[in-house]
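Q: Predict the assembly, please.
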Amino acid sequence: MAGENLLEIEDLSIGIKRGGRQVRIAEDVNLTVGVGERVGLVGESGAGKSMVLRAIAGLLPRGVEVLSGAIRYDGKNLLDLRPSQRLRLMGPEIAMVFQEPMTALNPLMRVGEQIAEASIRYKGMSRRAALARAVELMSYVGIPDPKTRATAFPHELSGGLRQRVMIAMAISLKPRLLLCDEPTTALDVTVQHQVLRLLEEMCDEVGAALLFVTHDLAVINQTCRRLAVMYAGHVIETGTTEQVLHDPRHPYTRGLLESAPDFDRPERLLAAIPGSAPNLADRQPGCAFAPRCRDAVESCFAGEPTLHATIDGRQTACFRADELFQKVNA
Amino acid sequence: MLQRLGFIPGRLLQAIPIVFGLTIIVFSLSKLIPGDAAVAMLGERAGPDALDALREKLGLDRPAIEQYFLYIGRLLRGDLGDSLMYHVPVIDVLPNALPVTLSLVLYAVLLALIISIPLAALAASRPNGVRDLVVRGYTLVAQGMPQMWVGIMLMLLLSLQFPLFPIGRYGSGLENIRNLFLPALTLAIALTPTLIRSLRQSMITVLEADYVATARSKGSAGFPLFRDHIVRNAILPTVSVVGVHLSYIVGGSIVVERVFNLPGIGQLMVQAILNRDFPLMQAVTLTVGLLVIVVGIVTDVVYSLLDPRVAAGRAKA
Amino acid sequence: MSVVSVIVRGKAPSKARPRTRQLRPWYQNPPLVAGLIVTGLLVLIAVFAPFIAPHDPLAQDLLNARQGPSPEHWFGTDSLGRDIASRLIWGAQVNLRIGFLAVLIPFVFGTIVGAIAGYFGGWFDIVIMRIVDIFYALPFYVIVIALVFALGSGEASIYLAIAMVSWTAYATIVRGEVIVAKQLDYVRAARLGGLPKWRILVRHIGPNVMSQVIVYAMSDVVMNILAVVTLGYLGLGITPPTPEWGSMIVEGQTFITTNWLMATIPGLAVVVASLGLSWLGDGLSDLLNPDRRK
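A: Predicted assembly structure:
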């Protein structure tokens, strides 16, 4: 890993109060993002990935809080900072792109003004200058006819354009870390591709690191160099994209890959993972994936596996990783 | 922007049958009142011939439906009859009273907003917290306080005990800011429970909205966040609520004008009723009804101007 | 009922599905308890007025007029020497009785009209909604005052006047709830099962709609009490010498500089009454609609 890590998440646990009890929606999450690096965070809905992003941004919803752990940005633990200090990071250093552009944009404010907001606040630019910059940014992200479009309201734009607006907003202050919460999920497939390319270009130009949350493996494959897989609030595997997707080291990852259609081999039967994701409020002892795992043995139900290094230097949270996957590769 | 206002002609057309219904109700009211209108107008000791003549002139011996159309005809010609109390055409009496009531109502709405917005924000910032409970406690108590009593209490405290505001004076121009403060405050207090409840609810919804999270992710906070994102969006449903309650406010002004002895429409109405001045009473009722309808349309216009999502030609949200 | 409960899903109202939330027992429901206590006390005072009131509310004693509070007269006397405390107590009887009774006609009439309009729709619905619109244009007090004046003073005209105006709210609420309930799956199932429309309306939709209406009725009682008090203040409705809080307030206003209690106390009585009733309404709302809690 080149250079100091920009972002280090250490043993992060997030909980939500439900019915008087504390339910852990993310547990002992460990993750790093290097300067300018593009890292993906994959998992099903409800696996806790969005909450990790929100915890970094300090935008956890009411009732959800960080239980333990640290989030280090540039070496400083964000959780130790005063809210006002933390706030100053949002925009110039860390920015976020949300999933649902329709609800993520203020319906009553013109698009150009929303993009200009950050510039006015942080760069002290006059309104006119900030708006002019907003138009520049809009053309930068590929919005046609930006001058007119800047006066439009969000509902007057298509989904793809709205997402571009969100990206323009996010990069307006040239942040060093871009957090993306499923930014393409709500878009048409054709538009998805364009937006992804845009994100990559922007990151290259601005030199920003990317932490990309999604449930779509294909998207990760295209965009990210490294990835981490989450299941039921735990990170269960990490590695480079190529390694993990071609040579998984966790039964869950393997199951994911097997259930994805392969256009090169259309005759292959899709193998779904039996069962469904566990109810986080109802945690049983042992590995969270064990009930659905075809390679589970008795010890899998007893203790909870944590991320550890495998023989060839990757990380996985499975007791049987070495035997299961060494066998395959042997 | 002009195309957003395209729904206005439609609304006006919609309003016409309502106005007609209004006239029917007002007309029926006067028919309900016992006693002979001619006798009431000329007095008990008038001669039978004079009474008959008047009855014929007013068309009192014709069937009710005909009388109604006569009435409508007179209305459209601007003839509202003569006031029995003041012995001048009703048309002359109204224009003096209308501005008083209008300024009172507007002032009251302004004060109500000034009071309600911060309180609602306080309550919404932490629902079910202490501040929220206090604010909600206030609304509970406030909605049970009879308006005239609130007016009297305010009078007691801010005029009699501590001579800060006058009572019963209605001058002109800026002086009225002080003159009308107590009555406007009375009305405003009556409005606050509904307003606070509605604002609080919409603020809570807005605070949880995605676009607020977006704004905060850009580092927006404090007053700019509040002004640009929260208030703007939260106030929208409240505009509708105020519009609906406007008829209640106008009705409340009747009592308040009486308490503070202001020469407005409400005062006129009560006097007309107590003095059996039918023409005046009819005219005032009609005016008030029309006022409410107009305000309703204005509210719709305001709402559509504030919310860019309202498409042209769409009826009231 | 078994077929219906099998098909139940979606936002089915209380009786047809297991509650996802624990129902609070009535005694753990603070507004309900507070409301019951306050309202109960007031009702007791009103009912037992003849036994509680220290003096005859109508008895004049001109020599002792306009006295301040004393052991003999807890709140003093009014301009005719009548004991204010007794008038307050008897006034409770008047104001509360009218407040409660005035709800009945609008409740019944409005509910029936609203239910028919909501369930059967059609031209009836359109006509009714137009009429409601017209009534909305006229402020409550304007019509009530005019009507009470037209019909003459006295209790009966108050009931009539309020009835003529308040029914619209009930009709609107019921209509809205019925329209929503119509679309629910379990109602559709009942229709498919061949139940006649009337039966469905009364047995299936009815109970769930009624809980909303009852809660509204409580707030309507408060509004009626305020209306009676306002009418009394304006000199309409209940006429002297009958003790009524509103007319006591207007009388008190003239003596505001000498004995401010005269105007303040009756108003406080109104506030207490409305507080008790509002709590009761809130508590009932909690009880009957646990899933709609704020």
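Residues 1-22 of chain C have pLDDT under 50 and may be disordered. DSSP finds eleven helices and no strands in chain C.
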